[in-house]
Amino acid sequence: MEKLPMTRAGHAALEAELKTLKSEERPSVIKAIAEARELGDLKENAEYHSAREKQGFIEGRIKELEGVLSLVEVIDPTKLSGPIKFGATVTLVDEDTDEEKTWQIVGEHEAIIEKGLLNIKSPIARALIGKEEGDSVEVRTPGGEKSYEVLKIEYI
Fold first, then answer.
1. Fewer CB within 10 Å, N or C, the chain?
2. Does 89 score more than 80 pLDDT?
């Protein structure tokens, strides 16, 4: 199987979620199912069906996280330098609006665009790979063509 690149912070966040699911959520839903069973008829027991549905979600997420974590290759951006690559924190300026944006290029399972964590497989990240400070980048986005200039590259 192909290794999944991930930052140390992203790896820690997924491990913490897995630990919470196993040590808190799973026992809680098992207890809720047991309590709902005590109420009698399971066919018309909304609490029971709700708890079973939640249990299915939790078990599915646990399996998903274990699968992802088994394929992770943790990459430490502080040991990198040079042109843009995985882990780089990049400051760009939109050449049309002069708006500055800063993103860190991370693995797909840790990407949260609202927090500035850009999926390595996104069109913008793919266009940035290999670029250096001062380079201009053309990106085809769902909203149309965008032009950015690379202002700063950091590995933090």
1. N
2. yes
- d(Cα 33, Cα 44) in Å, to the nearest integer? 14
**Rounded Cα gap, residues 153 and 146, in angstroms:** 19
- Sheet with 144-154, strands from edge to edge, namely 117-119, 100-106, 89-94, 144-154, 136-141
pLDDT digits (tens, 9 = 90+) for 102-126: 999 999 999 999 999 999 999 999 9
CA nearest to 105, candidates 131, 82, 77, 133:
77
Q: How far apart are the first and last CA of the chain?
A: 29
> Tokens at residue 131, please?
């670029």
DSSP class of residue 131 equals: -
